[in-house]
Amino acid sequence: MVEERGNMKSESVALLPVSTECERVCVFGTGDIGRSLGLRLIQAGYSVIFGSRQPQTCNFLPNGAQVLGHVEAAQTAHLIFVAVQREHYDFLVPLANQLEGKVLVDLSNNLKKNQYPEANAEYLQSLVPGAEVVKGFNTLSAWTLQNGPSDANRQVYICGDRLEAKQEVLAVATRMGFSALDQGSLSKSRDLEDFPLQLFPLWRLPMRIATGLTAALFFYLLIRDILHAYITQSKDISFRVMVSLANKVCPIVSLVMLALCYLPGVLASFLQLYRGTKYRPFPDWLDRWMLCRKQLGLLALGFAFLHVLYTVIMPIRYHVRFWATERTVALIRQNRTNEFSTSAAWHSDSYLSFGILGFGLYVLLGITSLPSVSNALSWREFSFVQSKLGHLTLLLCTIHTYLYGGIRFLNASMYKWYSPPGYMLSLVVPTVVLLLKLFLLTPCVDRTISRIRQGWERGVNKRKNKMIKTVV
Amino acid sequence: MVEERGNMKSESVALLPVSTECERVCVFGTGDIGRSLGLRLIQAGYSVIFGSRQPQTCNFLPNGAQVLGHVEAAQTAHLIFVAVQREHYDFLVPLANQLEGKVLVDLSNNLKKNQYPEANAEYLQSLVPGAEVVKGFNTLSAWTLQNGPSDANRQVYICGDRLEAKQEVLAVATRMGFSALDQGSLSKSRDLEDFPLQLFPLWRLPMRIATGLTAALFFYLLIRDILHAYITQSKDISFRVMVSLANKVCPIVSLVMLALCYLPGVLASFLQLYRGTKYRPFPDWLDRWMLCRKQLGLLALGFAFLHVLYTVIMPIRYHVRFWATERTVALIRQNRTNEFSTSAAWHSDSYLSFGILGFGLYVLLGITSLPSVSNALSWREFSFVQSKLGHLTLLLCTIHTYLYGGIRFLNASMYKWYSPPGYMLSLVVPTVVLLLKLFLLTPCVDRTISRIRQGWERGVNKRKNKMIKTVV
Amino acid sequence: MVEERGNMKSESVALLPVSTECERVCVFGTGDIGRSLGLRLIQAGYSVIFGSRQPQTCNFLPNGAQVLGHVEAAQTAHLIFVAVQREHYDFLVPLANQLEGKVLVDLSNNLKKNQYPEANAEYLQSLVPGAEVVKGFNTLSAWTLQNGPSDANRQVYICGDRLEAKQEVLAVATRMGFSALDQGSLSKSRDLEDFPLQLFPLWRLPMRIATGLTAALFFYLLIRDILHAYITQSKDISFRVMVSLANKVCPIVSLVMLALCYLPGVLASFLQLYRGTKYRPFPDWLDRWMLCRKQLGLLALGFAFLHVLYTVIMPIRYHVRFWATERTVALIRQNRTNEFSTSAAWHSDSYLSFGILGFGLYVLLGITSLPSVSNALSWREFSFVQSKLGHLTLLLCTIHTYLYGGIRFLNASMYKWYSPPGYMLSLVVPTVVLLLKLFLLTPCVDRTISRIRQGWERGVNKRKNKMIKTVV
Prior knowledge:
The structure is a homotrimer of 472-residue chains.
Chain A: H1 2-15, E1 24-28, H2 32-43, E2 47-51, E3 66-68, H3 70-76, E4 79-82, H4 96-99, E5 103-106, H5 120-127, E6 132-136, H6 142-147, E7 155-160, H7 163-175, E8 179-182, H8 189-194, H9 204-233, H10 246-275, H11 284-291, H12 293-312, H13 318-333, H14 342-368, H15 371-376, H16 379-405, H17 422-441, H18 443-453, H19 462-471
Parallel strand pairs in A: 1-2, 1-4, 2-3, 4-5, 5-6, 7-8
Antiparallel strand pairs in A: 6-7
Helix pairs in contact in A: 9-10, 10-12, 10-16, 10-17, 12-14, 14-16, 16-17
């Protein structure tokens, strides 16, 4: 029995490599970030020693951690996290001896870009040349460190000059549940330090496009609809700015941006078709454009949503209710009869119905682009939704707009000051995209594209082609 | 000091088991999948050797990987990932000696089902009988491999004939952050290879039900509402197809499908009640039905959403505006007075209000079924929302429909060609579900169900019962 | 060659520490939880021995698991999961010898709070005093155990009296992919056992506020709008309860709750400003309030959504259509002329437009608070959306309400029975919040707040201050 328990004991040790002596890491700094990092390290099974100038005054440290002075702490571990603000790095200079050969992970961030001439991590390396500085973990908030990685906060970026040091940090990150990506040498620190200062980088281009389009259309329609009436008929219809104008700008911006969201994919296909290979990289502008398609689409959905709201509250507007009454009153006073027009009914019901179906699919696209939903889709399902349903949405919304216009384009009075009405402007890009897509879908073009996507290259002789395919 | 650093060194090694010699894996194939897999393996701490026919021409390989010829690469590792298309497997035949006893992981996929007589993995095994082939990882896209597992892309399925080989693959998958599921022997490869070719498998049955219901109702209402008017009164109201008809089909399909979403749960309770135990499996059709309840509910929500849109744009329709004016004109010309009917006001406001509340809950159910939201709920919270609030939604929507109908069912003119109006059809299934549920909620039935759910079995004698509960 | 294969063999073993003898765990209980836990353990690479009273009758066990009698099973492993209901714990008493020194993990839950005088884990410890009981894993459902951890189901809470025992459990949890949090000594078991019985704990306070506000406003408006008309003019407008009243209650509750969602943040800033430091904890009520801001905001969004629905169906209501006709008829019969009022058009269009924009942002806030979306945001992005856009939403909605009211507040007839109309009530809290926020945004106040947030303390002398910052 005793022997058996002895075995059990050794089993328990084997089961618990986490508590062995050597798995010790040191954290300099007992602020929010230091404490949160320490907590996460402990929960990943490391034993954590905090280094502090005044160890006896440190409170709120995570359960199970030890606090020592900087010198003593530095001696206990090979890996030291430096969770201290750059301004206080000078305390490390007298520790140079203890830090010789150690791996120092610089977690610091700045308050704004280009705050200092060199990156914090490079400054740290210059202060302690004997240590191996690795930049990393700075993109995580204290909150993420405390609560552990979640889907979107799983990436940790590191960079540094020595591979072994990076490997060591990487192993710790992996055990904490993060997924660390090596970004290269320490000269990349500046990029990593700028990262948390970014605000919606992928949304910037789409936001600029949306703002530009909205402003341009607003002034175009302001002049065409409101100033024109004021100047030629002295009518003050300025109140239309609030709803009528907004309800013209929103759908136009929405439709154009939806088309812009599918245009780069079509252009990319044409480029591949023209080059006869998928192995040459796209031009930079096309790459950037393709990367922000999701954001373009979501902004477009936002404008479509406003369009729907602006449309459904129309019957509540004083303006609309007033003229409805006026029309009835005029009909009676002038003793006219109104004839029901089946074609007008068809027209009104059709463009409304296409708009509703288009918006329904639009919302579906938006929902499937939620991270948790798109993660749940297989690649084939995602591409089905975003490509097939996406183009269908564009088609329905374009038909909605054509039907809305109807045969009005034949009417010369529509072209006030020789300018086309807004809805016509909105049709240019979608029509082009749909026609190009239609061309790509013709069987013989489609076949060529598919072969290119599977690795076929035009003009590559059979032997070489075979070799490339073999090593795929 | 020197000694201390020596210790430090050994510490570092202990901390870094990942870089030790034996943790080497080999990847055959340097295409998208091979490169992405290699990147993920390196980031999980493995050292990766790529095997290629022309090692010197391989570009874009992940940082830190080595490339060797196939023969040399095969000798470096016990575990070899084969990321090569099936058509090129024959290059493995001359390597048979080097592959003897190795574990080969087949990652390949096909372009369509039943492309080849036997599964790729079985074909691979037949080519290299001395190796131990494991099928796996083929359900992951290159994108997932590059970016690491996320909630929905965490599952990796493997199958193979030797347990040790599978264990080895499983350990690698786990360290890469995936969660591997053993699907059995190599004969299951066909299933795994078919998996990525599936398109929304769980949505298929609900989509068929929705399509079938929509088509049937469309023709029923087309005949009843539009053809009937054309034949009996020669009136052309075909324009109603676009909005009026759509706005009848949508709510009916939505309500029926919502009811169908709660019917299997009720049937399952009755079955358990009848059998007196929860330990006998449900019939296959009921299992399949229960598995697609979420999809049924979400499709129902889609139809409800369209119904709401079709309803709120009603006052904008030409048809509706025309007849509103006509009614006013007729009132005046005939010098009639309209009397305000409080009961009509109650009726109209009630069904609208119930509809709005029902739709509000409907949307709430939809939101809680988003993966990230339902993951955040405890099991008790999820079942509260989906069961309690779900049945409440069904109740509200059913009342909405009953109120909408009102006492019209007494009116013989409603039954054109002896057929009931659409809304009546929509009430059958929800009423049945609600009545059955009501029965299940009666105290004595509810108590029995609860006991069955806790493991009690009718007719099981006390001794045996106690034993079963003990081992639970 | 032979030697090489020998090396390979040892490689494989090194690569596969998971299958070594010592990584064995035992699970008592073969019910849903036991089987699911066993499956997860096997998939994490452990070898699992089930302990059962009647090992030969156990079915449905996960592939690769072994079943033994309790005595034999207990001897195989140092770590034993007890997945048995508390009522059957007595079977452990005769096993005391085998369990001596073992770690017993109690997974049990109860059906209601305070079902037993002491926590299950404490009861288990009292039955087997020689074992080391750790409470844990009880917050996971069988479903989560089968499918592995996902973002929201990654946390595992454990507590126990011996650190080593907890470390051992923690290591197993980590390898299963969970993130275990040590909650302290075994006396905390009661809390852990109560946890799964909670139902939306963070939603409780916001739900109470919403219910209270809704009820109070409902009765206030019932008396003011409906009873007043009935008593002073004998008019029965009770039907207004269904839509008109609901459409007054919803926007008021929504606006007040949105303001309540931003009030605690403003109060906290004032408190920090007054105290001159961020290092003193907030009062308890403020902490609790701040913790449920998200829930307050989401409930407010729900009410806003209902308000939008109630508003857009207005033109469909019998009541609204009737009076629209009546007004036209009266106009003609009395031969009056209606004058178009540009200011009325401005007024109606403005409040609608502000409402729409406010609701658009409201929905955006709601979407960004979905777990998967907010996880994808950096901390700076999240705070931009929730703070900047949040206050903008509050501003837009408050302007919407002010514009809706317009100059009606000058009209004495609005104050039926000396009580103000509902919309005025709704403006109090938002106005206060916005004014306080405006004060906080003035440059000099803003600067002080920023310094406090960065750790500056009023009245702390420079030396001490510097020290604190150093150790941050």
